[in-house]
């Protein structure tokens, strides 16, 4: 199978915060890969903008080093030199007047205009205001906004209102890179392009759903930042909420940005409040060689969670009675992200002493080794009667698509190309963000009011023991965390 590369129109892309970590690790290497694949025309223009005083050549050297280091590209690659000619740079003062006229002079009238805000959220309003006041952005321009989009409902509303002063909702692209993953998009294809699963995708046939995002790294080096957010703000309110919505939403009338986001919004609004007994928070401990969360956060009294597990219920006809279990954490046993749909067991087994049929499972792997795995019961090969065994029907995208599949676009690559095309399907809408915070805020407030400390757990484990009991009391078990 050969993947098709469809070029986008010529564009002018301005990256605010172009000297920052995200631009060097993800955005610039991703843009180069799209250029090398033939998706970005050579007449396009990519302009870096930041406080650093430097010229085009200095920025190109900086970008070249990043693409080589983080993109795995050789310096001798002839496409690299061609790509670097697309780059330019303008020193800019986000809160003042410096550099804006120079930036305006670089923007071409007859091209797609996109502006990537790879900066702290506190600067979003300042940049949006100056783009409008200096006449750099027009009614067809697009702005890309990185998370965190607020830290609670009040700040999210304020940020939405600030951006709305200068840009219409159809111009604002709130990016969540999880939605750019190949497997996440394939989840919609599996559900809505096949008759096989959709009739079973409801409380009558699904016992429960597990969503796991596990990381092996801690917060050392960025502990002071992470300590102000924690696992709920950092992962649950955005990444995991988006995964939950895609699993639980009703079929949209069309694969259209607003139709898809309308159905996601309905899921968020149908979420029941989480009871105190249905949530577990944890903090990883040191192992003798490495410090624990309190040392990494540089706050011995911190009550911020590095792990959270919760049981979530959706009050609608499709999912009433089917629990969704969410867990995410730092310093866990393996780095993995997956969605597991656990179907109910057959209501009656005709196989008495030959093995009880186990529940079917559909596991969608986001990382590593993106793909899907369906566990079914079959007869164990060989003589000796009917013996049942559970086997996986495995589809790794890299294996299924061959060399083309192994070189699939990174999430950022895909999402930036969607911005250029003007396709908002995989981006969050303002009311969707606010609804997610409206559900999350009471959970955070209840925890803060309780003054409880997070449950300790060993680095390299599966999380706190209390999280295991969260499942055991429902006669269920977490799937093993493994890469």
UniProtKB/TrEMBL annotation:
Residues 188-479 form the Glucose-6-phosphate dehydrogenase C-terminal domain. PROSITE patterns: G6P_DEHYDROGENASE. One of its GO terms (cellular component) is cytosol. GO terms for biological process: glucose metabolic process; pentose-phosphate shunt, oxidative branch. Its EC number is 1.1.1.49. Pfam families: G6PD_C (PF02781), G6PD_N (PF00479). GO terms for molecular function: glucose-6-phosphate dehydrogenase activity; NADP binding. Keywords: Carbohydrate metabolism, Glucose metabolism, NADP, Oxidoreductase. The keyword NADP applies. The active site is at residue 239. InterPro entries: G6P_DH, G6P_DH_AS, G6P_DH_C, G6P_DH_NAD-bd, NAD(P)-bd_dom_sf. It catalyses: D-glucose 6-phosphate + NADP(+) = 6-phospho-D-glucono-1,5-lactone + NADPH + H(+). NADP(+) binds at residues 51, 147. Pathway: Carbohydrate degradation; pentose phosphate pathway; D-ribulose 5-phosphate from D-glucose 6-phosphate (oxidative stage): step 1/3. Residues 14-186 form the Glucose-6-phosphate dehydrogenase NAD-binding domain. It is an enzyme of class 1 (oxidoreductase). Substrate binds at residues 177, 181, 215, 234, 330. Catalyzes the oxidation of glucose 6-phosphate to 6-phosphogluconolactone. NCBIfam families: zwf. Belongs to the glucose-6-phosphate dehydrogenase family. This is Glucose-6-phosphate 1-dehydrogenase. It comes from Paracoccus caeni. The lineage of its organism: Bacteria, Pseudomonadati, Pseudomonadota, Alphaproteobacteria, Rhodobacterales. The gene is zwf.
């Amino acid at each position: 199978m050969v993947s098709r590369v469809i070029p986008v129109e010529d564009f002018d892309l301005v990256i605010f915060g172009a000297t920052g970590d995200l631009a060097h690790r993800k955005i610039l290497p991703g843009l180069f890969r799209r250029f090398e694949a033939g998706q970005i025309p050579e007449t396009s223009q990519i302009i870096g903008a930041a406080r650093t005083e430097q010229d085009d050549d200095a920025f190109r050297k900086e970008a070249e080093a990043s693409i080589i280091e983080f993109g795995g590209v050789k310096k001798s690659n002839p496409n690299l030199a061609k790509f670097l000619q697309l780059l330019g740079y303008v020193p800019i003062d986000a809160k003042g007047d410096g550099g804006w006229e120079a930036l305006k002079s670089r923007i071409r009238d007859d091209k797609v205009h996109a502006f990537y805000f790879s900066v702290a959220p506190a600067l979003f309003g300042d940049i949006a205001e100056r783009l409008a006041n200096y006449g750099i952005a027009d009614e067809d321009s697009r702005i890309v906004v990185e998370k965190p989009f607020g830290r609670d409902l009040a700040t999210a509303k304020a940020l939405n209102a600030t951006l709305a002063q200068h840009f219409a909702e159809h111009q604002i692209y709130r990016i969540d890179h999880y939605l750019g993953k190949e497997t996440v998009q394939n989840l919609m294809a599996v559900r809505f392009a096949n008759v096989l699963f959709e009739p079973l995708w409801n409380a009558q046939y699904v016992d429960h759903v597990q969503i796991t995002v596990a990381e092996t790294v801690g917060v050392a080096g960025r502990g002071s930042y992470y300590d102000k957010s924690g696992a709920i703000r950092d992962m649950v309110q955005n990444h995991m909420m988006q995964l939950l919505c895609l699993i639980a939403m009703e079929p949209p009338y069309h694969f259209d940005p607003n139709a898809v986001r309308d159905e996601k919004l309905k899921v968020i609004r149908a979420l029941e409040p989480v009871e105190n007994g249905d949530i577990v928070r944890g903090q990883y401990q040191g192992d003798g060689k490495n410090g624990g969360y309190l040392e990494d956060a540089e706050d011995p009294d911190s009550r911020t969670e590095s792990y959270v597990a919760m049981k979530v219920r959706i009050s609608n006809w499709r999912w009433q009675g089917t629990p969704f279990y969410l867990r995410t954490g730092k310093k866990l046993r393996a780095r993995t992200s997956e969605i597991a749909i656990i179907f109910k067991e057959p209501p009656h087994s005709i196989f008495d002493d030959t093995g009880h049929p186990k529940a079917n499972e559909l596991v969608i792997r986001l990382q590593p080794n993106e793909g899907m795995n369906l566990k079914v019961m079959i007869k164990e090969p060989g003589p000796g009667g009917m013996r049942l065994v559970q086997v996986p029907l495995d589809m790794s995208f890299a294996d299924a698509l061959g060399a083309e599949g192994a070189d699939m676009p990174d999430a950022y690559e895909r999402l930036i190309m969607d911005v250029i095309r003007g396709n908002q399907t995989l981006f969050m809408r303002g009311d969707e963000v606010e609804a997610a915070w409206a559900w999350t805020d009471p959970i955070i407030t209840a925890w803060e009011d309780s003054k409880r400390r997070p449950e300790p757990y060993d680095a390299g484990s599966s999380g706190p023991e209390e999280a295991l009991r969260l499942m055991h009391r429902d006669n269920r078990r977490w799937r093993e965390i493994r890469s």
